[in-house]
Design a protein that fits this description.
The complex is a heterodimer of chains A (about 450) and B (about 160).
Chain A lengths: L1 H20 L9 H25 L6 H16 L8 H4 L8 H24 L6 H17 L4 H5 L13 H13 L4 H5 L1 H21 L1 H22 L6 H15 L7 H15 L5 H15 L7 H25 L20 H14 L4 H13 L7 H19 L6 H11 L1 H10 L14
Helix pairs in contact in A: 1-2, 1-3, 1-8, 2-3, 2-8, 2-10, 2-13, 2-15, 5-10, 5-11, 6-8, 10-11, 10-12, 11-17, 11-20, 12-13, 12-14, 12-20, 13-14, 13-15, 14-15, 14-18, 16-19, 17-20, 18-20
Chain B lengths: L17 H22 L23 H9 L9 E7 L3 H14 L4 E3 L2 E2 L2 E2 L2 H4 L4 E6 L8 E6 L2 E5 L5
Parallel strand pairs in B: 1-2, 1-5
Antiparallel strand pairs in B: 3-4, 5-7, 6-7
The chains are: A mainly alpha (about 450), B alpha/beta (about 160).
């Protein structure tokens, strides 16, 4: 029962995003997509409100945090003007044979979510990181009603990575305050729960460009990729699923027709901020995705500075608040590395590549990467928008290899338990890139 | 309200290659879903409620430690100091179980028997008021036995002078 309450409380953070997503600029999205975008935006805003409250010395309380998140969303809403509404203005005519394909895709997504749920219930997908640091920090912060600086500084808590960004622990603390205590089972069930949210929201985010049937097929592929990876690499309860939720929705919006509109850019910016506030690798993802958007969508991203502000400022503000906390309490002053920045151990390059290959092969024979890659190849030639997902995947891959080669010791063991998880966004990006074929484009593609 | 000029472009709803382009992601999704279903632990009675959240995961080796630390919650009072050891001693498992004690015993202070895969100096955990031993009952009891489970034992140590 506590687990259900713990999980259900996360729906409260979604309320915070409603003032923003209720704006008529988003009326063109299906209701399910609008609610999921509200939930994800609300989660990012409530997490920011929690960090800001700590900086201001205000102890957390649940109604106050939900209200603060909603006030932030309402404030952001003031920046939005009534904008064009794609689907509502001109509903797209159904394609011949659309319904059976939409149903088939929906059924595949449903089974993929069911598999994730079954694996999680069976205790077959739990990440040890939940017990090692995500959960204990969330639990302690809920008890303290703030970031517990003494707990973070404790010499026996070094393994809890005090500098890791705060969103997962913030939302875990939020749910623990509502439920009265931490629920470990509830935390593991965030994997299927967020996957079902993604399955509900993603098709609508892709449909303005692809049409319902193709959007549903790409969404099914993406959900199947994440489900398979989650079960194979044991991501239940750690930061991977929230990270993938934010990143997938952000990229889906940025490759859509609606990405030319300021409201969509603002939501994409909040989602990218959510990714940056979830895990360390969310920051390179955010920077690459925002930068490559301008390269991939030159017309959609004009004028440059306002678009850049919408995409980058939310992440800059959220991470600034986090680092301001770390610096003000003298706990951390940035992300911790594994050595001097350019002190690379190139002699480890072969070991690193072999270990990454082994790790990806061990996660479902690398099918979560190979299958979407095959779909990308089948969709060739791609529209110019490919630069965004494929470029981000390439930059992330380079970042991970750089990080692994950075370590003075043999990184094989580290890679064996981390690579499949941290390379999961690359698989998701390939799945979304499979939607960018230029053959069969239903209308002239605008870059 | 602005009008999206792009919507006015003639829509060709079904070009010859469209169906194939949509078919590939569907087939890809079907392959991955089938693989995921096959990889579920059906042979371990998937629908039987697991004892711990790690029972059928890749980290199932730590499930006994999880079960013992979780079972110890009612017998270890708030504010107490705790150490988790294994029998026989295993510094890697003890490193994990120290972290489990931090997670599952909130309000108590967990002292490490091992840290980052190495035995910690004995004085680090010498003053622990409670000792959890994952594995066999030790030949030399560390104190008064409070709890015994299939995964191990929980002991209250005598007060130090």
């Amino acid at each position: 029962m506590t687990g259900l309450l713990w999980l259900a409380s996360l729906l409260l953070v979604g309320l915070s995003g409603l003032p923003l997503l209720l704006h008529r600029a988003f009326a063109g999205y299906p209701l399910s997509t609008r609610l999921v975008l509200a939930g994800a935006s609300g989660a990012a805003l409530v997490s920011f409100a929690m960090t800001a409250a700590v900086l201001l010395g205000i102890p957390w309380n649940v109604p106050g945090l939900v209200a603060a998140g909603a006030v932030l969303a309402a404030g952001l809403r003031l920046f939005l003007k009534p904008a064009l509404v794609f689907a509502a203005d001109a509903p797209r005519p159904p394609e011949p044979g659309e319904s059976p394909r939409v149903l088939a895709a929906a059924a595949l997504s449903l089974i993929a979510v069911g598999a994730a749920l079954g694996a999680t219930f069976a205790g077959a997908a739990t990440s040890p990181d939940l017990l090692f640091f995500w959960g204990p920090k969330a639990q302690q912060f809920a008890l303290a009603r703030t970031f517990d600086a003494a707990f973070m500084r404790d010499e026996f808590h070094q393994h809890m990575h005090a500098y890791y960004p705060p969103l997962v622990t913030n939302l875990g603390a939020f749910a623990s305050m509502v439920a009265g205590r931490m629920s470990w089972t509830g935390a593991t069930l965030t994997f299927p729960l967020l996957l079902v949210f993604l399955a509900a929201g993603l098709p609508g985010a892709l449909a303005d460009r692809l049409g319902r049937a193709h959007a549903a097929a790409i969404a099914a592929l993406t959900i199947a990729v994440i489900s398979c990876l989650g079960v194979e690499a044991d991501i239940a309860g750690n930061g991977e699923m929230p990270l993938l939720l934010f990143e997938t929705l952000a990229i889906a919006l940025l490759i859509s027709e609606a990405a030319a509109e300021p409201p969509t850019q603002l939501i994409a910016g909040i989602l990218l901020a959510g990714a940056a506030a979830t895990k360390v690798e969310g920051l390179p993802f955010t920077i690459s995705a925002a930068a490559l958007f301008f390269l991939a969508r030159p017309r959609a991203s004009r004028p440059f500075w306002p678009a850049a502000g919408r995409l980058i400022l939310p992440a800059a503000v959220m991470l600034s608040a986090w680092f301001a906390f770390g610096a003000s309490r003298r706990i951390f002053f940035g992300y911790s590395g594994y050595g001097t920045l350019f002190d690379l151990h190139l002699d480890h390059a072969r070991v690193v590549l072999a270990a990454v290959g082994r790790s990806l092969s061990a996660a479902g024979h690398a099918l979560p990467w190979l299958v979407p890659l095959g779909c990308v190849l089948a969709a060739l030639p791609l529209t110019r928008r490919w630069i965004l997902p494929i470029g981000t995947a390439a930059i992330l891959t380079a970042f991970f290899l750089f990080t692994y080669i950075h370590r003075p010791e043999d990184p094989s063991l580290w890679i064996s338990w981390s690579a499949a998880r941290i390379f999961s966004p690359v698989a998701m990006l390939l799945a979304l890139a499979a939607s960018l074929g230029s053959r069969g484009e239903p209308r002239p593609a605008s870059p | 309200m602005k009008v999206d000029k792009r919507r006015d472009a003639p829509v060709s709803p079904f070009q010859p290659s469209t169906f194939n382009i949509q078919l590939f992601p569907l087939v890809g999704a079907a392959i991955l879903v089938a693989f995921t279903l096959v990889s579920l632990p059906w042979k371990e009675n998937l629908f039987r409620r697991p004892r711990t959240i790690f029972d059928r995961s890749a980290a199932s080796a730590v499930a006994p430690g999880y079960a013992l630390v979780a079972a110890a919650v009612p017998v270890i009072p708030a504010g107490a100091t705790v150490v988790v050891r294994t029998e026989p001693r295993d510094p890697i498992a003890e490193t994990y179980y120290h972290r489990f004690a931090d997670a599952l015993l909130p309000g108590r202070r967990a002292l490490p028997a091992s840290f980052y895969g190495r035995f910690a100096p004995p004085e680090v955990s010498r003053d622990a008021a409670y000792v959890l031993i994952v594995g066999a009952k030790p030949a030399e009891p560390p104190g008064r036995l409070l709890l015994e489970t299939p995964e191990g034992t929980v002991w209250e140590t005598p007060p130090r002078r």
